[in-house]
Write a structure and sequence with these properties.
single chain, 300 residues, alpha/beta, Rossmann fold, six-stranded parallel β-sheet, two-stranded parallel ribbon, 12 helices, globular, binds 2-acetamido-2-deoxy-beta-D-glucopyranose
Length: 300
């Protein structure tokens, strides 16, 4: 299954802004996508380069080549992917003074993990497009094309079989952000990625909180008609109240926020959190909106 970004083709504005304070940009693709398809991340890179003359954009390729990169979205352990990204970022000479970052879908929570685990060089602004920051509970709407729906059906069946069994937890990326609110205790113990970066384990990692709070801005874009992410509120850090799967509460009513496990409350009070929404399905936005609301405000 491919979850590609969908940009409405409006190539109106193209102001070039050059300044020696412009920071480079790191982008991370979503599931089924790659660093470099010309119609998705390649296109985002081009649009940003055209709009911000002279900017350096690094689109992360995981696993060393395009084929592995696409597979990585399903089958390379999230923790290894984050480690790979940290290595790339810390060894890229053009990023050493710091950078901004944009994650698409699951690339959003991966980049947040980079901010929390790898503070050098510093990430300044993080923009999340349809990220699943509290994980997902459900795997809806597989596409109709048989070619694409095979992987999708496979992933769905495996998740339903047992997301927290060790084999599946270690081997399937989507299981690593599977968050079952009916079994919150099992999730906290067995989930190897999202429960870890959200500091939901019994032992809290102080550096996760300190590092995330170094961000100047954390921007979360929610797609109001998202048919892929359940619950949609996860894109703004909200989630089901523990013990049931009907009532969803906003970020500020979760325990994670109230006890400030990763610094979200402090960041909120400091005005560093930005909640944006788009009236569209998963990763569907238009170019003008992207340039005006995201690039002009949080990239240049
Ligand atoms: C570029 O940076 C230097 C300081 O490093 C500053 O003096 C100069 O005004 C800057 N130029 C522009 C165009 O921002
Ligand atoms: C906290 O996270 C950092 C970065 O991943 C890791 O090096 C460190 O061992 C962790 N500390 C604890 C107490 O888990
Ligand atoms: C939580 O945030 C919402 C806005 O998203 C706000 O209306 C509400 O008052 C906040 N609740 C608390 C308990 O701060």
């Amino acid at each position: 299954m491919r979850l590609l970004i969908f940009l409405t083709l409006t190539f109106g504005s193209s102001l070039s802004q050059v300044s020696n304070t412009t920071k480079p940009l790191v982008i991370w693709h979503g599931m089924g996508d790659t660093c470099c398809y010309p119609f998705s991340m390649g296109r985002i890179k081009k649009i940003v380069e055209k709009h911000v003359h002279g900017i350096y954009v690094h689109s992360l390729m995981i696993g060393g080549n395009i084929v592995r990169d696409e597979e990585s979205g399903f089958f390379i352990n999230s923790n290894e992917q984050v480690e790979d990204a940290c290595q790339q970022i810390s060894s890229d000479p053009k990023l050493q003074e710091g950078y901004h970052a944009m994650g698409f879908s699951q690339g959003s929570q991966f980049l947040r993990a980079v901010a929390q685990r790898c503070p050098h060089p510093p990430m300044h602004n993080l923009v999340s497009f349809g990220g699943q920051h509290q994980g997902i509970f459900g795997f809806p709407s597989c596409p109709r094309e048989p070619e694409d729906s095979r992987v999708c059906e496979y992933v769905r069946r495996i998740l339903n079989y047992g997301a927290y069994t060790k084999l599946i937890q270690d081997g399937l990326v989507q299981a690593q952000y599977w968050h079952d609110p009916l079994h919150e205790d099992v999730y906290r113990v067995k989930n190897i990625f999202i429960a870890d970066i959200n500091n939901e384990k019994a032992v809290k990692n102080k550096s996760y909180r300190e590092n995330l709070m170094k961000l100047e801005n954390f921007v979360m874009v929610k797609f109001l008609r998202d048919s892929m992410v359940v619950p949609i509120e996860s894109e703004w850090f909200g989630f089901y109240l523990p013990g049931q799967d009907e009532v969803v509460v906003p970020m500020n009513e979760t325990q994670l926020y109230k006890e400030d496990w990763i610094g979200l409350k402090s960041m909120d009070e400091a005005g560093k959190l930005h909640f944006l929404s788009v009236d569209g399905d998963h990763l569907q936005f238009d170019t003008d909106w992207f340039l005006k609301e995201i690039v002009d405000n949080f990239v240049v």
